[in-house]
Amino acid sequence: MTADDRFGCNRLATLPGPLRLDGGVLLSPVEIAYETYGTLAADGGNAILVCHALTGDQHVASAHPRTGKPGWWTRLIGPGKPIDPARDFVICTNVIGSCMGSSGPASVNPATGRPWGMRFPVITIRDMVRAQAMLLDHLGVARLKAVVGGSMGGMQALSWAATFPDRVAAAVVIASTARHSAQNIAFHEVGRQAIMADPKWNGGDYYGGEPPAAGLAVARMAAHITYLSEAGLTEKFGRRLQAREAKSFGFDADFQVESYLRHQGLSFVDRFDANSYLYITRALDYFDLAEEHGGLLANAFRGGTTRFCLVSFDTDWLYPTLESRNIVQALNAAGAPVSFVELTSPYGHDAFLLDAPEMNRVVDGFLRGGR
């Protein structure tokens, strides 16, 4: 890697594969879109893999090419931040199944020359991690200083430590879980049904035509509610009505919170693919790290040398603190070194993406402690 990479470099790697998926299918070739920041040290000891959440992407600390918005974790990654490209070689990949360049439903099936659509194979969190490992092999990164992620990114961090324990020195797991609850699955199913009920979904064969924007927007609205907290919504919106010259009752967005959710849904459809949403939410629902290791979560971490740091937020009801405590108990049972903290925030699950100076101090201290 060159010094030019310090400021972010967006790339696409086409790996020959094959990648054997948990479902038994061989995926080949495997395309991985990724960004790097910083320079890989001569001994390869400064590489940090950052894993994104459900609707995230590889643009973790640089502007999104489609929306122009800053990277989604610039509060954590950058000069003088806990993860600093002047010190660390940072890699962030777009997970397979997604729609920002990695192999997924919208990419071309080499066998047909047409987009995969719903013919793309079912994927799991562990499949995403195996694809990332292939990319790291391609980049010459044998071992990670750390793997860091929040929400679905935290699931990937856990899966990395369980699947490739010899390649991970430290794992930072923020606002995450070792398995999806029935409530999580239920919310995702509402979103999937909204997409599939949209006539424009057309069984997933909408590429080249109009996408199922209305269904995807509703799915995003339903999911976004789970990312917030009741206290946060009340403080921001309460029951305030939209400002209008003449009050009218009906099914327009009378309440400010309604308008906010509709904006979230409409802006989301401009950057995300509906089929990818179906595939990735299903991967999240399948995630159960204990089930992958004989039904006992501690088995996922036995014999490894990875250090763990877990962070939860007190208003997160999507992945509440109890989920993190369950992981900590399993790590203790496995004899793995772990630190854990619950932070206070009014922002619910989204707190890990927002201004969280206490989280930054925890992550910074943990990463520096491993040097």
Automatic annotation (TrEMBL):
Residues 46-355 form the AB hydrolase-1 domain. Keywords: Acyltransferase, Amino-acid biosynthesis, Cytoplasm, Methionine biosynthesis, Transferase. Its EC number is 2.3.1.31. It is found in: Cytoplasm. It holds the Pfam family Abhydrolase_1. Pathway: Amino-acid biosynthesis; L-methionine biosynthesis via de novo pathway; O-acetyl-L-homoserine from L-homoserine: step 1/1. It is an enzyme of class 2 (transferase). It catalyses: L-homoserine + acetyl-CoA = O-acetyl-L-homoserine + CoA. GO terms for molecular function: homoserine O-acetyltransferase activity. The keyword Magnesium does not apply. It comes from the Bacteria. Its main location: cytoplasm. HAMAP family: MetX_acyltransf. Transfers an acetyl group from acetyl-CoA to L-homoserine, forming acetyl-L-homoserine. Belongs to the AB hydrolase superfamily. MetX family. Homodimer. This is Homoserine O-acetyltransferase. It comes from Sphingomonas kyungheensis. The gene is metXA.
